[in-house]
Task: structure prediction
Amino acid sequence: MRTTRFCAALIFSLALLGSSIPLSARMNPQILMIYGGALVKPVFVVIRNRADVVATTNLWCGSSGQVIPKQLADRPHFDVAIFWGVRLEDAQLPTLKPEQAHQHGRLYVASRDVPAAAVTTAFITADPTGTFPLAQPIPRDVTAFKYGAWLGEADIQFVEKLGVSLRNRQLDPIATAR
Result:
């Protein structure tokens, strides 16, 4: 009787643990890879704690707003590969490839009339068992993006520290003076 209850409890616990993506992996992505545009090599943002989540929320559209795709047409951008539930040592980050990402996005450079913006595809999709997030194809067209966020000065400064400029240097007197 005791063995039967123990086995039933063990099976139930394993089913609960194994049947869904871990809660921590569903709350926010763990790694953002910014690549393309004028970057020679990808820049990685590892989200390790709550402060990192707050600092990067707009970059992965965790706080989404209305961004109209035609406002982004023909604007320079950087691509973003978004990895959920992936934990790697810093030395392993360069092994990641955009094709392995669970979600994709773009960071658009500000124009004279439109601020810098971020857009992303739909959030993660789990495999049929619900255990692991699936890699998603890289979108080639702006209409594939579902979420958007206008980027504020704090967001722009955050990515500038990483070597990614979202300011149009020819149009921004503050950036030109730097």
